[in-house]
Specification:
Layout lengths: L1 H6 L4 H19 L4 H18 L1 H27 L4 H15 L8 H22 L8 H9 L1 E2 L2 E2 L8 H6 L4 H29 L8 H21 L4 H24 L6 H17 L5 H13 L5 H12 L2 E3 L5 E3 L21 H9 L11 H7 L25 H7 L15
Antiparallel strand pairs: 1-2, 3-4
Length: about 425
């Protein structure tokens, strides 16, 4: 660890300078030799570094969203080459290259913090050894060696011997209790942050290398911190615990306010949004109107959570508009929505239509009363509406064997009834 810390010694001076500047502020409040002054200086260093890393965090969020968008394609590749793992990996890498997605982007904040972390470790190790480092002179060194956090010196470690801890004016028991508690808290916060991401902000039904990577990190990182934590000085444990708590809070904010589409967190967010809209009958903030507008613009490409949101608005008598606002509309019963298509009558098959026509009563051509024939005549489909009442059907033309031809040319089936005026 000392070798790695010395490798990042180029940043030791800037880190020590920032700590000294914060110590001058907190020292005026709590006293220059107190653990509060030095401990809060380390916490402020973490906050400053994390603020500078916000652009990297935004890039991490975008990369995570891109991975979510690619999950259906990744699943298709997995199913297509399920018996050829090498070809599956090649197709995955090709997909990453085409879309410009890096599955390791989730590690960017950790990698960016590494130089500051090892520089701080180098500073605290020098303080424990009684050596000046960076801008920390002898007077600041003596002040830092006297600083204790809950009875544990700032530069003490879990693995230190009793003699070394005694030289820092502390007991081995107090050092090990404080460091053990901080190590457990550090590992627990790391595990909770990663588990929160896995259970709320991703789709666990899709088994992809990215998902396997995230699941692996959820269990590996806490174990790594727990094993390595016993070799960290108390000041470094303060640094890493603070950055884990920052990451946890930052992750909770993103999950609650900008969840991944299709995730459990998105469903919970849309339920809260729906409750606010139905209570006030309007979308009350510009940011929420942007979200509603994006959902409306998706149309048939909405996921299950977004379709559920639109249908719930319709059942409440509200209709989402393209600009993100809502207007009052007709409340629909359960199971219906404004987007439902109009039901068209089904066309009956030809056999049923013919069967229906056969059930119509046929007009009698002989022995029928004039009134009965008059009532039945409008029901026949062969009589023209504009035909005059005294029109007579033309007799068939007789040429040669005309009678036989006329007889053979007659329409089979029901014949046209005679007009009632004809006797």
């Amino acid at each position: 660890m000392d070798t790695i810390a010395s490798f990042f010694s180029f940043i030791t001076t800037p880190v020590s300078w920032v700590i000294v500047q914060f110590h001058s502020v907190y020292g005026a409040i709590f006293g220059p030799d107190t653990g509060w002054a030095w401990g809060l200086s380390i916490v402020s260093l973490v906050v400053l570094i994390r603020i500078c890393l916000i652009p990297l965090f935004v890039k991490q969020i975008k990369s995570t969203r891109n991975m979510q968008v690619l999950q259906p394609k990744m699943k298709a590749i997995q199913e297509r080459y399920k018996n050829d793992k090498q070809r599956q990996s090649e197709e995955m890498m090709k997909l990453y290259k085409e879309t410009g997605t890096n599955p390791l982007s989730s590690c960017l904040p950790i990698l960016a913090q590494s130089p500051f972390f090892f520089a701080l470790y180098h500073v605290l190790s020098s303080i424990a050894s009684g050596k000046t480092v960076g801008v920390i002179n002898q007077s600041l060194l003596d002040s830092a060696r006297q600083a204790h956090i809950f009875g544990a010196p700032l530069a003490a470690k879990f693995t230190d011997s009793a003699d070394k801890v005694g030289s820092l004016d502390a007991t081995l028991t107090s050092v090990r209790i404080v460091t053990a508690i901080m190590i457990v808290m550090m590992s627990a916060s790391q595990f909770y942050t990663q588990r929160q991401l896995m259970t709320k902000n991703v789709d666990l039904t899709v088994k992809t290398p990215y998902m396997q990577q995230q699941k692996m990190l959820m269990y590996i990182f806490p174990v790594i911190f727990m094993v390595m934590g016993i070799n960290f000085p108390v000041g470094v444990l303060v640094y890493w615990l603070t950055t884990n708590v920052w990451t946890m809070g930052q992750q909770m904010y993103v999950i609650n306010q900008n969840p991944t589409p299709g995730s459990k967190a998105q469903d919970q967010y849309l339920q809260r949004l729906l409750k606010g809209i139905t209570t006030h009958n309007e979308v009350r903030s510009k940011r929420r109107r942007t979200i509603v507008s994006a959902i409306v613009a998706k149309g048939p490409d909405r996921n299950d959570n977004e379709r559920k949101f639109i249908n719930s608005l319709s059942k409440s008598g509200l209709v989402a508009q393209a600009d993100g606002t809502v207007i009052k509309g007709e409340a629909l019963p359960e199971g219906e929505s404004h987007a439902a298509k109009r039901q068209q009558p089904k066309r009956q098959p030809k056999s049923k239509r013919q069967a229906g026509g056969a059930h119509q009563p046929a007009a009698k051509t002989s022995g029928a009363k004039p009134s009965d024939a008059a009532d039945d005549s409008p029901k026949t489909s062969l009589q023209k509406k504009d035909e005059p009442q005294d029109a007579q059907p033309k007799p068939p033309r007789k040429t040669g064997n005309g009678a036989a031809r006329a007889k053979s040319g007659q329409r089979k089936g029901q014949q046209r009834p005679k007009h009632p005026t004809k006797k």
